[in-house]
Amino acid sequence: xxxxxxxxxxxxxxxxxxEIQDAVNRMLALQTTCLHPTTNKPYVNAIIGGKxxxxxxxxxxxxxxxxAEFENAVDRQYYMGTDPAHKEFVESAKSVLExxxxxxxxxxxx
Length: 110
Prior knowledge:
By secondary structure, the protein is an alpha+beta fold. Helices cover 33% and strands 30% of the residues.
């Protein structure tokens, strides 16, 4: 059963456009840089994202959204807790991120 992992970013006011683009590129690259501990192959099914374009005014500072898909809860847990590429990204992005929100769900499961 697939797991959808939604990640929302608010960048610091001090983050330059170059720093933001670099963080975005590195976030998207996790689809290929995160390698499964057993197969040593990429295991994140997909990562897509973009800059907010909503006119509703309910973003609460969030400017960028990403959606990652994992095959199962074990892969998602490895990504969040152990994966060295993900850990490196998280550490490197702290300097430019003001806020991060994450929501996970299984499609159709309520």
